Input
Amino acid sequence: MRKAFQRISTFTRRWFKDTEKKRIKLSVIYLALAGKLHRLLVEGRRARSAAKRLYQDLPVTALGQMKLEPGDIVYTPSSESTYYAGHMGIIGLDGKVYHVHPYGPVFADSLDWYITRFYEGDRFIIFRSRLNQAGVKAAEWVQEHYKQVKWYRLQTNLRSIERNYCSKFVYQAYQFTSGLDLWSRKFTKLNQGYIYPFRIERSPELEILGTFYK
Output
C-alpha cells in the first residue's frame, strides 16, 4: 500500500511539474508574440505619428505665446501621462487651466505649470467654442463651481458636480450655461452616460485653434 501511494505521489508531482513547464513555455511564447505585435502595431505607428507631428504641430513654447480666451479647452490625447484616456482642462476668466484630476480633485494651474504635468512627446490641442460668448459663460461657471467637486469619479450622472472627471466638467460648463451639447449623443437627453475626452474632441460645436507638441 505504501509503495502504491509513493508511486501515485511521484506521478502527481511529475504531472504538476510537466504542467507548470508547459505553462511557462506558453507564457514565454505569449509574451514574445505580444511584444512583437505591440512593436509592430503600436510602437511603429506611434513613431510614424511622432515624426509626422514634427512637421504639423508647433512646439509647446508657441502655446505659451498664444492668446487663449476664457472657455478655451486644452486637450491632451491618449498617452502614458493621461493613463491612456486623454485629459482636458478649461481656461478660466483668470487665465488659469481648471481641470478635474484624480489627485485633485480639481486644480487651477497656470498654463506653464499645467504643461509640466505631461511627458515629453505629448500633444496639446486647443479648442474654442463657435458660439459667441459661450466660452466666457463657461469660464464664469467653472470658477464659481469648481470647489463643489469633491471626488474624482467616472459617474454616469451628467448633472452631478460633486462626483466628476475632466471631460464631464468641461461638458457641464457649456451645457449648464449656454445649453451647448459638446457630446451630441442621445443619452445626454437622459442626463446619463460617460463623456470621454475624445467625444468632446469630435464636437462640431468646437473649432481647433492649434496643435502643439512637448
